TrEMBL record, chains A, B:
InterPro entries: Acyl-CoA_dh-like_C_dom (IPR025878), Acyl-CoA_Oxase/DH_mid-dom (IPR006091), Acyl-CoA_Oxase/DH_mid-dom_sf (IPR046373), AcylCo_DH-like_C (IPR036250), AcylCo_DH/oxidase_C (IPR009075), AcylCoA_DH/ox_N (IPR013786), AcylCoA_DH/ox_N_sf (IPR037069), AcylCoA_DH/oxidase_NM_dom_sf (IPR009100). This is Acyl-CoA dehydrogenase C-terminal domain-containing protein. Belongs to the acyl-CoA dehydrogenase family. Its cofactor is FAD. Gene3D superfamilies: Acyl-CoA dehydrogenase/oxidase, N-terminal domain, Butyryl-CoA Dehydrogenase, subunit A, domain 2, Butyryl-CoA Dehydrogenase, subunit A, domain 3. Residues 44-161 form the Acyl-CoA dehydrogenase/oxidase N-terminal domain. It comes from Deinococcus taklimakanensis.
């Protein structure tokens, strides 16, 4: 059975030594005033979170996979054994309220801490973690654009975890393309709306873990314009609450079936049928897409965390197995047994270091983003808020796609370390692979993330956000180009960053040149995001290596933590970062090789 | 539900136009005399095989995944619904005898045709295909080194499919490292041996599809030397046959349990307990490893075929979905619907073309290898046999590892084309991913294949086999460097081939320089195999493109088949082949980045 130990030491290293989180949070009155900026306190919270997750959540992971969720004839859904009990403890300990607004019962902790705990939960049990995870998305949207009335009625219950939330976007014919959804909203004339339609792929859509479920639903109000400009956001509770928050009548939303999935079996992925269900408008009419994106950005980082968390736990278990499994003899021998631990073999080390390098860089990116979100939401200086918000917008698609792609690949490589045993369910490695696969698909496929990055985040503002980041990198590179330890990394990084700029320019020019411009963006996007991801990870690895070398020089490396950082950085720059060479070539090749003859190559006949 | 259409047109193109199979087989008396060299006949056999596989085998694929195999308390195993009936038809139609020796009831067809059918079967239903597939391995070993008595008693039953075979190698503590197996053989003094021990991961190890099962078992004869030099190969039948071939008493080999696996659920992966089971020596005492390798090479190509077959069927279904699924609007629009087929979007085309390019090159490699095996086994000219055998030895690890890695990646990308629907079991795409994953692991992990290639096949003979292949490539490159159509490909290929040579030289020098030499080989192997694989695929794509351009120029491209070849070749060289740039860099980085501090990085304490 797999094991898990939360990497709190590394989390604290990133927060405090790389990001200077304590200082940054102290500059934000919201946290200062709530007494949630103190890093010692935050450290203790993380330690406690680790203990809870390791002992209460992780042991349920294989049970959840095996049992799955079961729906009865009435549409009620039973979650796997132990899921509800663990959730009750989770609520009772206040974890659902961690980074929520104190006005609604929250603890007002930074998002930084919530994201760290998020990583732990997804490592331990991603299917379980999606129940509170989806609630967090619903909380964010409602908190941002809901009316005071809705907020007062719903938020305290979501914050204390007695009610959970969902995001109802997808329909059978409409996934990426939300502009063509058919779910309808009719004005009841009493401040409520009748919602009718079918939503699919609704994570945590129906279950027995909470008293009530608050669905946030995209629907088209009668008479609204076609496309994304005619979509509104509605709140549809499973049970309609009375004014005092007690539960009233059952609403007209029913779970029609549960999907049979490749993984995340412990999470109920529901088909929800809305049959004139009573709904309340959230935010403004026809602004549903904008409002939903409040949730989507959080959900995208949350999905990226699944890649990180599953990569981490897969790596941990591969590492343990590699030290334990004796197979073949190394020269010189490293054990007195009939064979040596496979960790002695370079190719096994390559697989392990791939996991370590991607995971630790991903953690740095995630925590950097989380701290930026805290700054964006609460910093008193508007310019700082804007700057942080731009960085969040730019880096979110990278966090989602690059982290889930790497997480899946790390899970696959970690499974490979187990040889044949990796294919056997009892060892748990194949579950990590199956569970990790969905992260590349949902909350906008990674192809869509790439288009969001290149089309919307980079080209649409004329490269301003990119230039801002490039400036930061440039500055760091200039400061360190002569450094004896990281000078070589910084030079590689500087070249790649320059190349990113010139690649962007070329695509930007192509994009504006006539009809095929959009195709050039579409053709380049996925490779572009991967290239960009390496530039970001390279920057973070160079920074981490610099700090580690300084600590070693100062005689502070008692347990080898900093030595490990410097050696993992070297692995990253010599064995993973060179992927950029291939990507530069494939991006440069552009759309032409894809513009093949439709009939000859694909047998596709069209107008 | 997924569909499948055997790509017989492409198979015939490779066989006849690329490899000149008809002419080559006609030069081999064994086929000429058996009337199995005629390409028209072989074409008809392929068409009939396609019909059989599409209608009888493919419809059972999802059933097999869902039902799996079930073991009762006595150790009997029931295969999924329909598996036995399909196998009975398969036998009755003579397919188990296809390329077997006419002396034992075989049809004496070339291995070329058997490999083509192998691809079809793995596309249709890989779990089902493993039952006859394993029999083929047992047939090969027994045919090559068994005594006349054993051959006469067993081979006719294996050839007519009434008995199936297995390969019993792995034990709980010994997978890659067969030198440490513990299964024992004691001489009974009557020409038989008592076999005792436990074997795991035995594919098709116990089932209800055939009357008898012939286990080929690696065991250590009492008093034999330690390590691989003390291992012998034994034949252990489930039922001990009487001299007339009728079934006698039940032997002491029992299925102790079935593994719960990530995929290939329809195949029974058994733990087999041998308790003094009666066995017969196959070949010579203590030569078991050599004899087993007769099976292993066939099994490795067979495993490579799983990558090819699953890549092909995943690609076919992604292509169909991409034409059907309407999502987002393309400029200019390509349909009158509210959205356009997603195949119009360049990034979707990129995913599809990746599948097409890897699959068609893999098919060319597989059929080239199969024809080389026919030459190796039956050509009257010893020099030709030797030359073909060398090529088979060199290319087999590439076929196994490169084809299964690409097959898995193609399955994953094809699943991605489906968006969220790809994660749902009913669509069948996630089964392809799960089924494809094992190919990278079993029959020697792909890491082991890479060591076999670089260490044994390339370096151990001083690069002679490699130079032979490089000479072929060089000749082709020189002939075509000025070609207006493929000149650019040929130049890329020539450079990469030269680079492969110089990389090999550098690693070879490192390998001989002291204690860490073996580590340098181990560190480079996986990237080296991938680089080599691209050189081989590049060569095949350039050859296919040349033929296709010639046919187009001659006005022979009525249906666009050749145009598709030329455009897919271009995609390969511009979008996939550039991976070699990254691989060259990571190979060059060598072992140093992997030689990290064991305690600091991995927490691994050792002598």
């Amino acid at each position: 059975m797999p094991s898990y130990k939360a990497p709190t030491r590394d989390m604290k290293f990133v927060m405090q030594e790389v990001l200077g989180a304590g200082e940054q949070l102290a500059a934000i009155p919201f946290y200062k005033d709530n007494d949630t900026a103190d890093f010692d306190l935050l450290s203790q919270v993380m330690d406690e979170a680790a203990r809870f997750v390791e002992t209460e959540i992780q042991p349920l992971n294989q049970i959840g996979d095996k049992e799955g969720c079961v729906r009865d004839d009435q549409g009620n859904v039973k979650t796997p054994t132990g899921f509800k009990a663990a959730y009750d403890k989770f609520r009772a300990a206040g974890w659902t309220a961690l980074d929520a607004d104190p006005e609604y019962g929250g603890q007002g902790m930074p998002h930084l801490i919530s994201i760290a705990m998020n990583e732990m939960i997804t490592s331990a049990n991603v299917a379980w973690g999606m129940y509170p995870g989806l609630s967090h998305g619903a909380y964010s949207a409602l908190h941002a654009v809901g009316s005071d009335e809705l907020k007062k009625l719903y938020l305290p219950h979501i914050v204390d975890g007695s009610w959970t939330g969902t995001m109802c976007l997808t329909e059978p014919h409409a996934g990426t393309d939300l502009g063509i959804i058919r779910t309808k909203a009719q004005d009841n004339g009493d401040g409520t709306y009748a919602i009718t339609g079918t939503k699919i792929f609704i994570s945590a859509g129906e279950h027995d873990m909470a008293e009530n479920i608050v669905h946030l639903v995209l629907a088209r109000l009668e008479g609204s314009p076609a496309g994304t400009k005619g979509i509104s956001l509605f709140l549809v509770p499973k049970f309609i609450p009375n004014a005092d928050g007690s539960l009233g009548e059952r609403n007209g939303v029913v779970c029609g079936s549960l999907e049979h999935k490749m993984g995340i079996h412990g999470n109920a992925t529901a088909v929800l049928n809305f049959d004139g269900a009573r709904g309340w408008l959230v935010g403004e009419v026809n602004k549903g897409m904008n409002h939903m994106f409040i949730m989507m950005n959080a959900a995208r980082l949350g999905t990226g965390m699944q890649g990180l968390g599953l990569g981490e736990v897969a790596y941990q278990n591969a590492l343990a197995y590699a030290k334990d499994r004796l197979q073949m003899r190394k020269e010189p021998r490293v054990s007195g047994e009939e064979a040596d631990p496979i960790i002695a073999h370079p190719d096994v080390r390559r697989m392990l270091l791939t996991g370590k390098a991607y995971t630790e860089a991903g953690r740095a990116l995630a925590l950097w983003l989380a701290l930026s979100i805290d700054t964006e939401h609460h910093h008193p200086d508007e310019a700082k808020r804007k700057e942080a918000g731009d960085m969040v917008a730019l880096l979110t698609p990278i966090a989602k796609a690059f982290m889930t792609d790497n997480g899946f690949n790390v899970a696959v490589q970690s499974q490979q370390v187990f040889g044949g045993h990796g294919y056997i369910q009892e060892w748990g490695m194949e579950q990590f692979v199956r569970d990790a696969r969905i992260g590349q698909i949902y909350e906008g496929t990674n192809g869509i993330q790439a288009l969001d990055l290149l089309g919307r985040k980079v080209l649409m503002d004329g490269g301003k956000k990119l230039q801002k980041l490039a400036g930061t990198l440039q500055e760091f590179a200039e400061e360190n180009e002569g450094d004896e330890n990281i000078g070589d990394y910084v030079n590689q990084l500087g070249k790649a960053a320059q190349q990113l700029g010139s690649i962007t320019m070329v695509i930007g020019q192509k994009a504006m040149s006539g009809e095929e411009g959009a195709d050039e963006v579409n053709a380049a996007a996925v490779d572009y995001l991967r290239f960009f991801g390496h530039v970001v990870y390279g920057y973070l690895w160079a920074r981490m290596a610099k700090i580690a070398h300084d600590q070693i020089a100062a005689g502070n490396d008692k347990d080898g933590f900093y030595l490990a950082k410097t050696q993992t950085a070297k692995f990253y720059f010599t064995k993973l970062f060179p992927e950029t060479k291939a990507l530069a070539a494939t991006i440069k090749a552009g759309n032409e090789p894809l513009a093949v003859d439709d009939m000859a190559v694909f047998g596709w006949e069209h107008a």
